[in-house]
């Protein structure tokens, strides 16, 4: 008998003796695996986190990996933000907090939405979530009616988690492919033809992961004008990269929030977070604003799931939103330099087609001209996934393959340039040399 099985049976026996119930364990053959619900079993794992794990495993083997993998700033959280959390911890902010967050932090967020985004917000419309990802999950749960045939629109290429979360909530994800020739941006006529009577929502993400572009404000307005014509559609606007826009590259480019338009304010949920702009990925701080009736429901859901985030983070949120603009600007300016650097470097890689990034921290080149070739070590390159796998294995450069960013992204790879300039230069040089050897 297998050792662990013996151990399990002997402790089960002991437990049965204590409880005075018959010790009848089913025979080994009758033990069936635990049931896993089909909606979880069929869900894909996060491709970005999977590459992050591959990088960690590869580094643990002692490999010198250059990672363009996770969308995570290489900067540390600004010192003043850390100090606010430490001070709160030391004065004993260690108890449960209100589900949606401490009032002072919710007020700072409401003030930010009102002042910076033009979304008139009261503090009780704000929920502070365990990362923006959790806010997106909750918002989708709240707007989708499973079993009704609901459809949610998703301009693609799009971040890997939207589609699985739309499907988990019970809707069909309808992709609207952005064209490379149009800087990955969708157009109003495309939106018009994607909307039908089953459409209940759209996930809007500008600046975009993985495209590394922001829509110019007039184009967002045009998209919004179309959305305003369809009263059933809720807009989930994920604005987590709003502060990472590079007018140095695209002069005049500014962020625009759909929720600021009176015609859409009553059916827009605006999601944001501190992970990217404040280099706070590990803190897990997201936040959202929603119309009052929806806000109450989201808070109810959060109360049954996670309750509040760690209570001593709330003063740090206030510090981030009210006293950290200079620190954010330093990081933004560096990302702008890196955006230019990586794009120039990528143009020197044979057979690679790129859109110049002007926001967020991603380049998303098309490498499909190299499919159906063989790598120096004999790997057959048939897809973005096999390209990324061989690249990591052979020259220790990590990128995220495009497949899970949407149907139109199968020929692309994503490079996060939230890493040092040296990594960008050396990493792209490794790609260039490797690509030159594909046959
Ligand atoms: N939205 C987008 C577009 C992202 O790239 C990310 C990256 N993590 C998130 C939301 C989630 O961010 P977080 O959960 O760290 O706040
Ligand atoms: N959003 C980041 C990325 O796309 C972090 C990982 C994740 O949550 O997907 O790499």
Order of strands, widest sheet: 2-8-7-6-5-3-4
Q: From the coordinates shown, what is the CATH architecture of the largest domain?
A: 3-Layer(aba) Sandwich
List the helices and strands in order. Answer: HHHEHHEHEHEHEHEHEEHHHEEEHEEEH
Count of alpha/pi helices: 15
Give the distinct bound molecules: 4'-deoxy-4'-aminopyridoxal-5'-phosphate, glutamic acid
What's the CATH H-level homologous superfamily of the largest domain?
Answer: Type I PLP-dependent aspartate aminotransferase-like (Major domain)
Number of strands: 14
Might you state the CATH topology name of the largest domain?
A: Aspartate Aminotransferase, domain 2
Q: How much of the residues is beta strand, in percent?
A: 5-15%
CATH class of the largest domain: Alpha Beta
Mean pLDDT: 94
The structure class reads: alpha/beta
**Radius of gyration over C-alpha positions, nearest whole angstrom:** 24 Å
What's the shape?
globular
Domain unit count: 2
End-to-end Cα distance, whole Å, is 53 Å
Largest sheet: 7 strands, mixed
Secondary structure: helix percent: 40-55%
Which ranges are low-confidence, i.e. pLDDT below 50, for 5 or more consecutive residues?
A: 1-20
């Amino acid at each position: 008998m297998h050792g662990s099985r013996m151990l399990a049976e002997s402790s089960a026996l002991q437990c049965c003796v204590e409880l005075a119930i018959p010790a009848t364990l089913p025979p080994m053959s009758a033990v069936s695996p635990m049931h896993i619900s089909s909606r979880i079993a069929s869900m894909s794992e996060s491709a970005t986190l999977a590459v992050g794990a591959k990088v960690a495993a590869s580094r643990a083997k002692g490999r010198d990996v250059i990672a363009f993998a996770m969308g995570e700033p290489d900067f540390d959280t600004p010192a003043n933000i850390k100090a606010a959390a430490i001070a709160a911890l030391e004065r004993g902010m260690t108890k449960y907090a209100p589900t949606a967050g401490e009032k002072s932090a919710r007020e700072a967020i409401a003030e930010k939405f009102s002042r910076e985004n033009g979304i008139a917000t009261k503090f009780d419309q704000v929920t502070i979530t365990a990362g923006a990802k959790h806010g997106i999950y909750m918002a989708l749960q709240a707007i989708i009616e499973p079993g009704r045939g609901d459809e949610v629109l998703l301009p693609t290429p799009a971040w890997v988690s939207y589609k699985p979360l739309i499907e988990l909530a019970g809707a069909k994800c309808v992709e609207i492919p952005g064209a490379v020739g149009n800087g990955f941006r969708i157009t109003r006529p495309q939106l018009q033809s994607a909307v039908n009577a089953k459409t209940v929502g759209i996930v809007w993400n500008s600046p975009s992961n993985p495209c590394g572009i922001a829509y110019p404000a007039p184009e967002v307005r045009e998209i919004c004008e179309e959305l305003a014509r369809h009263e059933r559609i809720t807009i989930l606007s994920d604005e987590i990269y709003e502060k990472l826009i590079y007018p140095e590259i695209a002069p005049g480019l500014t962020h625009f929030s759909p929720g600021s338009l009176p015609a859409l304010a009553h059916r827009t949920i605006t999601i944001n977070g501190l992970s990217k702009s404040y280099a706070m990925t590990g803190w897990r701080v997201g936040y959202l604003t929603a119309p009052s009736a929806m806000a109450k429901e989201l808070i109810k859901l959060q109360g049954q799931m996670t309750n509040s985030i760690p209570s001593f983070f709330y003063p740090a949120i206030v510090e981030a939103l009210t006293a950290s603009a200079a620190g954010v600007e330093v990081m933004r300016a560096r990302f702008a330099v890196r955006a230019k650097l990586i794009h120039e470097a990528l143009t020197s890689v044979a057979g690679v087609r790129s859109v110049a990034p002007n926001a967020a921290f991603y380049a998303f080149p098309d490498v499909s001209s190299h499919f159906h070739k063989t790598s120096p070590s004999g790997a057959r390159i048939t897809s973005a996934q096999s390209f990324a796998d061989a690249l990591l294995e052979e020259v220790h450069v990590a990128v995220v393959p495009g497949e899970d960013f949407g149907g139109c992204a199968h020929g692309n790879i994503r490079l996060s340039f939230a890493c040092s300039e040296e990594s960008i230069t050396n990493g792209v040089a490794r790609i260039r040399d490797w690509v030159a050897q594909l046959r």
